[in-house]
Known about the structure:
This protein has helices at 26-33, 86-92, 129-133, 141-144, 149-155, 196-210, 224-232; strands spanning 2-4, 37-40, 48-53, 56-61, 78-80, 95-106, 119-123, 158-163, 166-176, 180-187, 214-220, 235-246, 260-261. By secondary structure, the protein is α+β, with helices and mostly antiparallel strands. It has two domains: 2-100 and 242-261; 104-239, Aminopeptidase (3-Layer(aba) Sandwich), CATH 3.40.630. Strands 1, 2, 3, 4, 5, 6, 7, 8, 9, 10, 11, 12 and 13 form a 13-stranded mixed β-sheet that branches. It starts with a strand and ends in a 17-residue tail after the last strand. The model is unreliable at 255-277 (pLDDT under 50). Residues 119-251 form the N-acetyltransferase domain. This is GNAT family N-acetyltransferase.
Amino acid sequence: xIELAPDQLPPLARWFAxxxxxxxxxxxxxxxxxxxxxxxxxxxAPRTLAVACxxxxxxxxxxxxxxxxxxxxxxxxxxxxxxxxxPALGSAFDRIVPWERMLYVHQVPVAAPCPPRGVxxxxxxxxxxxxxxxxxxDTAWLHASWGGPAGLxxxxxxxxxxxxxxxxxxxxxxxxxxxxxxxACYTAPAHxxxxxxxACVTALCxxxxxxxxxxxxxxxxxxxxxxxLAWTAGFRLTQEYVHYLTGKPxxxxxGGTSGRPGRPAxxxxxxxxxxxxx
Length: 278
């Protein structure tokens, strides 16, 4: 695969359905936010196209056009692709791990809970970038789709619960589409079970509805806290699907194996650990 510059992209309507919920919204998010990267099997009249952002990849097109190691650039990524890409993924990596996912869409309006005394829930502003950066290192996934804390803070698409100058919880648009906004949220471990995430998510959902968009929510099937929060915040399940966590690029010298199925280890991305609510 070769990387494409934005001015080299083919018409995207042929490749990605407009107005899609969930992770599929990243195809619209990347050009709008200026984050992420585009890849194709060739620059002129590509037969396979990929868009990658924040450790997630969408693959479309004809996998028969790919060389055996063409997808190796997407190691340690979550890949969402039609099943016809599975042989190509299997040949590119030492293992691919199927990960069951659940897609929710916001359907039931929910009243925002009152924050505890001393806590303020408000929209993030550019000056909040240092407070976001001060969160634990394992929360970098939270703002990865915006290129970092400054990008998220400046986007106008995040809400946070603050105690003094400290961020206690955050909810934000993760992938911003033309119809759906797929959201993410996080609560600092010491401040869980205080309904702070629910307060942030509710405020964000009202904000998204005010833009004429619909919030969506994706999480692992095994992430029960995330599923419970989604339901409480008014989201309802609309689809179940599978994406694939890729391993290391497969060795081509006869010393390795390719495409072995595996069971997921603790994943560090977006809601597949107990800490993030994604």
